[in-house]
Write a structure and sequence with these properties.
By secondary structure, the protein is an alpha/beta fold. Helices cover about 30% and strands about 25% of the residues. The strands form four sheets. Strands 1, 2, 8, 9, 10, 11, 17 and 18 form an eight-stranded mixed beta sheet that branches. A four-stranded mixed beta sheet has the order 5-6-4-13. Helix 2 runs parallel beside helix 10. Bound molecules: flavin-adenine dinucleotide.
Length: about 400
């Protein structure tokens, strides 16, 4: 895998201990991605004396958190009407309001904790290049408005307005929302790890958990006892005993170009560095990086039977080629640019595509995840929610509809 984010981190990576002896903790967190680390962060904020450790099978940010598209977006994998169908209208509105507010919470925390991850709040443009796509873009805006969200949350742009923001080839219609920022994913996850370590959380690397049971987790040669065990393993969950069908690992892939030249940048405009996607069937997601490269991602890779997850799946020639073709179509100027990086990784997909935050006080089992491809911001909200559930302070977040939301297991 040759991830641009991995290569462009300038700080030296810290070597961490692996777990070689039994442990006794208040809270044991499995997985050092955003979910695990934000959980550690908010728990320590609420309970500074809690004995918390994070146990990671590879190293910090090895998973999707170190290699995603860097969209820190308030939008969720489920729509407002899907939430309403399962819960009620007010629950749907509350879920989206909290999710939009999460971008502010992340910005505030990055500033207060001095985490430099190139956070830039440029919003998102959702484009359409034909009439069918246009109706999808319009429907998305209309749905938000029908739940009481305003033009300040999402609005249609005139063609002139959108072309002035990003010069997209063949654009037919577009909408804009301010509820998204770009980040450098790997810098965020490494920065977060440093912050929680400063707060007294121990992170163990190269320590694979094989089994999670109430108040006990097992590694090959060691056992950890904890009042609460948090599973934050997302796209790798199927590798844990009895969890093969909990979340399906679906792969998402990305490429990055060399930096655009000054004249290419002028041609494309894009001064406010909005994220961009369009309403085609294959999901695409794009950002222009801090140093002026186009980072272009796409989904559409086939599911690997039996929920297999392997390092060899992190590259997929055919999908990468399809992503490059889409990039050339959307931004013809990129035909002259070298694609310098290609990578990919697994997302965690629940059977009903609805993420959840789960906590059972009696067994001490907790989990968060199933964000599909929208976890950069959602992990923060999920972790805050879980921290309040664990300390039992009846915080309003603990009544959000994703709390203890059940999703059926996958069939294979
Ligand atoms: C290519 C790609 C692009 C994406 N783009 C975006 C985007 O632009 N915006 C967005 O919102 N979302 C995006 N996502 C999704 C987003 O990155 C994830 O939803 C989010 O990072 C999930 O964080 P996490 O901590 O739950 O999981 P992860 O970051 O995957 O972390 C899970 C961690 O658990 C560890 N682990 C797993 N099993 C064990 C075990 N048995 N023992 C110990 N440790 C274990 C793993 O090694 C891993 O480090 C993208 C994902 C991918 C792959």
């Amino acid at each position: 895998m040759n991830s641009y984010w991995h290569e462009s981190v300038t700080s030296t990576e810290v070597e961490r201990d692996s777990l070689n002896s039994d442990l006794d903790l208040d809270i044991a967190i499995v997985g050092a991605g955003y979910s695990g680390l934000w959980t550690a962060y908010y728990v320590k904020k609420l309970k500074p004396d809690a004995r918390v450790a994070v146990i990671e099978s590879n190293n910090v940010g090895f998973g999707a958190s170190g290699r995603n598209g860097g969209w820190c977006s308030g939008f969720l994998p489920m729509t407002l009407s899907e939430i309403e169908k399962q819960h009620n209208r007010q629950a749907a509105i509350e879920m989206y309001s909290q999710s939009f507010a999460t971008i502010d919470e992340i910005e505030k925390t990055l500033n207060s904790e001095k985490i430099d991850c190139d956070f830039h709040r440029g919003g998102t443009i959702h484009g359409a290049t034909n009439a069918v796509q246009r109706s999808r873009v319009v429907e998305e805006v209309e749905e938000l408005h029908s739940y009481g969200f305003s033009e300040d949350d999402s609005r249609l742009l005139t063609l002139e307005e959108s072309q002035a923001r990003i010069n997209i080839s063949g654009l037919f219609a577009a909408s804009y929302t301010p509820h998204c920022a770009t980040i450098h994913p790997k810098k965020l996850v490494l920065g977060l790890a440093k912050v929680v370590e400063r707060m007294g959380v121990k992170i163990y690397e190269n320590s694979r958990v094989t089994e999670i049971n109430p108040r006990i987790i097992k590694l090959k040669n060691t056992t950890v006892r904890a009042d609460v065990v948090v599973r934050a393993t997302e796209g790798f969950t199927s590798l844990i005993k009895r969890h093969r069908r909990t979340l399906a690992p679906l792969y998402s892939y990305m490429v990055a170009t060399e930096p655009l030249t000054k004249s290419q940048r002028e041609e494309i405009s894009w001064h406010n560095r909005e994220t961009y996607h369009d309403a085609r069937n294959m999901i695409i997601y794009v950002q222009i990086t801090h140093d002026g490269r186009i980072a272009f991602g796409g989904r559409g890779a086939p599911y690997h039977f039996g929920s297999r997850v392997k390092p060899s799946y992190d590259n997929h020639d055919e999908i990468h080629q399809r992503i490059i073709s889409s990039m050339h179509e959307v931004f013809p100027v990129t035909k002259d640019l070298e694609v310098t990086h290609r990578w990919g990784g697994p997302l965690g997909v629940p059977r009903d595509w609805q993420p959840s935050v789960n906590y059972d006080q009696r067994s001490g089992l907790a989990s968060l995840g199933g964000y599909v491809g929208d976890g950069v911001a959602a992990t923060n909200l999920a972790a805050r929610t879980l921290a309040h559930l664990m300390v039992g302070d009846d915080h309003p977040l603990t009544t959000l509809p994703w709390v203890n939301h059940p999703s059926r297991k996958w069939e294979v």
